[in-house]
Amino acid sequence: MFFTNYSTYEGEPIRLYRTPEEIGRDIGNIKEKIEKTGNMLNVRSILCDMIAECAEGDPERWLPALRAVVTEAEETLELLRSFKESLDMLEGELEDTRCMLGI
């Protein structure tokens, strides 16, 4: 559902607003994705396990795997940053809607 708001007297264009419930659902979905992604990002544990397993072996053998873990962690961190940007935009949208509705 969308709300519209405009003023022909003051020259304000028509604006559409989603309901706070719809915005809240989107925020909840992103928070859920952040939690799942954060759980996958337990890099410290992964690295400690890898080092413990491979410490006795040749570093040349396990360095590629270690690099792969770091690369994956960096990609996951970038995904979390994009979720944060989405949350910031949704929170701004929610604030605008609440102001328009007088909540």
Structure overview:
The structure is a single chain. This protein is an alpha+beta fold and 103 residues long. The chain is built from 3 helices and 2 strands, in the order E-E-H-H-H. The chain has helices at residues 20-40, 43-54, 59-101; strands at residues 2-7, 12-18. A two-stranded antiparallel sheet has the order 1-2. Strand 1 (2-7) and strand 2 (12-18) form a beta hairpin. The model has no long low-confidence stretch (mean pLDDT 79).
Q: Percent of residues in helical segments? A: over 70%
Distance, first to last CA: 17 Å
Determine the mean pLDDT. 79
Give a quick account of the main beta sheet: strands, pairing sense, barrel closure: 2 strands, antiparallel
Low-confidence stretches: none
**Count of DSSP H/I helices:** 3
Topology at a glance:
Layout (H helix, E strand, L loop, with lengths): L1 E6 L4 E7 L1 H21 L2 H12 L4 H43 L2
Antiparallel strand pairs: 1-2
Helix pairs in contact: 1-3, 2-3
